[in-house]
Every structure is written in C-alpha cells, then in structure tokens.
Amino acid sequence: MSKTDGLPAHLAKHLSLFSNDQKKWLAKAAAFADAISLEETKRSDTENTFRRDLFEAACKDGLGALPFPSTYGGSGGDYLSFVLVNEEFARRCVPVMSSLGVHVLCQEPVYKHGNEEQKQRYLPNSANGKYLAAFGLTEPNAGSDTAAIATTAKLSGDEYILNGTKTFITSGASADYFIVMSRLLNEDGSKEGSPGITAFIVEKDFKGFEIGQKFDMLGMRGYSTCEIVFSDCRVPKANILGAPGDGRKVALGSLAKGRVTIAAQATGWAQGALDAALKVVSASGAAERGQLDYLIGGLVLLVESARALTYQAARSVDSGESDVTLAAMAKIQATDAAMKVATEAISLAQERGLESDLLLERIFRDAKAGQIYEGTNQIQRMLIARSLLK
C-alpha cells in the first residue's frame, strides 16, 4: 500500500491527531517492515522459528523499550507510539511482533515495582536487545484466573525454591529472563496464612529451570512458544519483584497495558485483512463491485471502530490514568474485528484467500489466538460488567 512521507496511507485521515514523535515511530516501524521480504515473513510462520536477529535489530531501532525513559536505556516514547508500531507490525505480520510486545510487557513490572539494582540489571540490557524477556503466568490449569496458580515458591536461606509449570509462554524457548507468578508458601510448606501470589525474576540459567514442551500451534507461530518448568528452581532472594504477596497487583497492572498492545496488534491484523480484501475487490468486474461495496463498507467500519477504541485506551495510559475496563473493551473490539474481517476477506477471495502471499490465512489464525490469550474475550466481558455493577 502506498505511503505518505513514509507513513501508511490508510492512516492519512488520522495523521493530524499524531504528534511529530508519534509519526516518527510509525515511519520507523513502516521502514522496518519494508526491509523484511514476504518470503521471510512466510518462512517464520511455516518453519515456526524465532528470528532473534530481527528482534535485536528492532531493539537497535529503539523499539525494544520504546515507552520507557532513557534513564534505563528506553526511547522515551509514549504508549500511543508503541501502539502504532504494533499496529503496523501486525498489519504486515512482521515476525517479531508478539515477542516485542511481550518484551515490553515484562519490562513494565521491573520498571514499576523493581528496586534500583533490578532496574539497572535488566532494563538497559532489555532495551538494547541483549536480553529477551517472557511472562510466566499461564499454567495448565490457570489461565485467566490468577487465583488458581499452582506454581509454588518457598524461602530456603537466601533463595526461593520454585516448583511448577507454566504453559503457552511466548518467547519462552528463546528468552533470557522471565517474570514469574508463584504462590508463596510458608517455611513449613503450608499455604494457609502465607502472603499468596508473588512475582519473581527468573533467569534461564538458574539451576532447576527447564524448557518443556515446545508448541507447534495453529496461529502465533515463530515466537518460541513453550512450557517452562521449575524443578526445585533456585531463585536468589534478591530476585523477588515487589513485596511478598503483591504478585497479582504486579501481574494485573502490567496485563492492563498488555491488552492495549494486543488491541493494537489486532487492529493491525484487521487492517491487513482489509488491505487484502480491497486488492481482491479492486480486481473484480464492475458488476461484482456493486455487490461487494456493502460488505467492504461494513469491514471498514469494524476496523475503524477497533482503531478508535485502541487509540483511546493508549491515550488513557499516556494520561497516567490507565483504565483497565477500557483496555478490556479495546482488546475485545479489536480481536473480534480482526477475526470477522479476516473471515469475510477469505470468503471474498475464495480459493486465493488460502494462498500465503495475501497473508489472509495467517491473519485469520493469529486473530483467533488474539481472542484467547492474556484473558479470553469471554473473561474480559465479565470484567467489564463487574466494573460497572460493583
């Protein structure tokens, strides 16, 4: 699709609403995507391999810690800028899109809840790409429900001993450190009266840390998604993140921003599917065009409504008043829109819709995952209702 001054043409109507810095980051994301061939994009999906080289290149471009201050190596951008980057990366299915989003998600709790030693150890190396981070929350029997976490941690001298399994961990097989939620036990191993869910920073080289099953999934491929296993994993006492028992606060505060990032990615998927649909319709005859205008108009409406809600949620973050309910709304609207637009676009394209060159079938598979991870859309709807009824 054509661009205006290095910016995607489909956002032309929105450019007057962006600051010069926001336009700069959007242009940088577009240039980064331009440098990746379609064949590379398709290969990351078919081979299900993580592109560490592209991740490090993105970090060198300032995208690895975009919304964090330069004090810790960040780029000092706002969250809307990071949303624009994620939207553009998703539109083109840039192979490191999801890993970059999770990487920034993991820096948030270190920046917000970490002590100075932890910030100095992990944030600069995350910003420059030396470290890749992953988030260890989901378990085989605990997804959206943090209260069901079964991974345990028990203090033993100057170390915590972690036991349990996390699953469907994006970047898990390639990450250097993990933000892990665990249930803190008393010294005698009992749960009653213990502080409860607690966050830890776990490095891949800690004794007792293992990579478990690697997943060959339907969508979200190329992100080293796997299980991580703690078998008497020894974590230094200095690596507790925040106070004992603050794990849910640490996780939920980060995930609220993470859902805005997912909304941005889903908006990009929806736009990518719409781009493909427009190519198909533009090649149709005049008679067919008349029948398709109504459908295309509806798809444009879905994309723009997702974009508006996502940008609103991002601006809420930038205002310092991050709205968890608004983030949930954006995540639902954008991922549902992506799934609907991709489905209709494949139907429009017919057999061609299954060809990898249009990226439609990939977007369809990724959009389905977007409706599920970081809190299913069903759970998000419950949270929205509860926020209004309490």
Description:
It contains eleven helices and ten strands. It has 390 residues and is an alpha+beta fold. Strands 3, 4, 5, 6, 7, 8, 9 and 10 form an eight-stranded mixed beta sheet that branches. A two-stranded antiparallel ribbon has the order 1-2. Strand 1 (3-4) and strand 2 (7-8) form a beta hairpin. Helix 4 (79-91) crosses helix 7, helix 9 packs antiparallel against helix 10 (360-370) and helix 9 (324-349) runs antiparallel to helix 11 (377-389). It is globular and about 75 Å long.
Quick gist of this model?
The chain has 390 residues and is α+β, with helices and mostly antiparallel strands. It has 11 helices and 10 strands.
Key features?
Butyryl-CoA Dehydrogenase, subunit A, domain 2, 8-stranded mixed sheet, single chain, globular, alpha+beta, Butyryl-Coa Dehydrogenase, subunit A, domain 1, two-stranded antiparallel ribbon, Butyryl-CoA Dehydrogenase, subunit A, domain 3, 390 residues, 3 domains
What's the structural blueprint in terms of helices and strands?
Elements: E1 3-4, E2 7-8, H1 20-34, H2 38-47, H3 52-60, H4 79-91, H5 97-113, H6 116-127, E3 133-136, E4 152-156, E5 159-169, E6 177-184, E7 196-203, E8 209-214, E9 226-236, E10 240-241, H7 247-282, H8 286-318, H9 324-349, H10 360-370, H11 377-389
Parallel strand pairs: 3-6, 4-6
Antiparallel strand pairs: 1-2, 4-5, 5-9, 6-7, 7-10, 8-9
Helix pairs in contact: 1-4, 4-7, 5-6, 5-7, 7-8, 7-9, 7-10, 8-9, 9-10, 9-11
